[in-house]
Structures are given as structure tokens and as C-alpha cells.
Amino acid sequence: MKVKICGITSPEDAVMCEEKGADALGFVYVAGRKRSMALETISDICSTLGPMTTRVLVCAPRAPADARELFDRSGVDVLQTYTLEPDQIAEVQRGGIPVFRAVPPLRSEASRFAQHAAALVFEAGTPGTGRSFDYSLVPVDSCRRAIIAGGLTVDNLDRAKAMRPYALDVSSGVESEPGRKDPHLVEEFIRRAKA
Fold this sequence. Notes:
The chain has 195 residues and is of the alpha/beta class. It has a single domain, classed as Alpha-Beta Barrel (TIM Barrel), CATH 3.20.20.70. The chain is 31% helix and 22% strand. The protein has seven helices and ten strands. It has helices at residues 11-19, 39-46, 64-74, 86-94, 107-113, 157-161, 183-194; strands spanning 2-5, 24-29, 54-59, 78-81, 99-103, 119-122, 146-149, 167-170, 175-177, 180-181. An eight-stranded parallel beta barrel has the order 1-2-3-4-5-6-7-8, surrounded by six helices. Strands 9-10 form a two-stranded antiparallel sheet. The radius of gyration is 15 Å and the shape is globular.
């Protein structure tokens, strides 16, 4: 199972998570979010990572042109958005940019985006709040690649893992304080997810 560590805010945390075996790292560029950073900072951190680690920009572009600009300026490999509609995602992906679309754990929402996005990120409530939910509600069979996010920790990841998603996405659940990843929690989360 793949693991994405989201909300990376420093080069040290990025390298540590990569060394602990994270498959992907998420960088937030959304106004008002605690872990949001400037695109230049994100690009600088991304440049320190090896070629086997997928870099994901969590963002809220208004249109495909915005998405392309964010992709070009941030140095990432994938965009994760809460804002683009299916036809807009298809347009961005035709331009060679993979897009993860965040959706609530509802089959109706998943079906709207499943054919257009490279993966669906299932999260309940307000995105980025770290709220856990009943992971058994996630319709993992509704898309090719289902990623479960929201309130995951080393203590509850087994419930999400039991759904057999493509990946688990964790942020605050592996932190010692907001924006600072804890090496022991990161290592344990990755170990349990991949066991």
C-alpha cells in the first residue's frame, strides 16, 4: 500500500519522510490553511527530493490555466485539488498533468470524477481538518485508485487499510506539533500501512 505524508513544511521533514519510505509527499498551497506555504518554498523543498518520491501540490485552482501555472511554479509531479470540475480535470490531464480530486466518501461524488482524475482522495467534512470518519463508507470500488485521508493515525489506520485503498494519506496524525512531522510516528505509520 502506498503512503502519502501531507502537510510538509520543511526540507528536513521532507527528507526524513522520504528516508522513512513515504511514496509521496504533499505540500499545501491553500490560503488560510495552517501548513500552507509559498510556491517558491515548495519548489525549493521539492528540488531536494529524489526522483522516486512523488511530490503533490494540494491546491485550489479556479480554472485549468491556474492549475497549469501552479504546477509549473511549484516543482511538483501531481496536483491535488478540491475545486476543479470533471471537464476541467480532463483538460489539465490532457496537458500531461496528473490530478488527484478530493471528494467526500459518497458514491455519487466519486462517480462524477472517477473517469477523469488520476486518483480520488476520499475525505469527510472540511478538507484538511484532520477529522476521522467511518472509513468503511469509502466506495473504494468506484474508481481505479482510491486514497483515504482524514484523521488517520497509527492507532486507526488499520480500519482504513481494511478497505484496501490504493493509498493512505496522513498529515496531523504523524506530527509532534502542527507542521512538524515526528520521525517515530512517520516510521510507525509507514511500517503498519505497508505490513
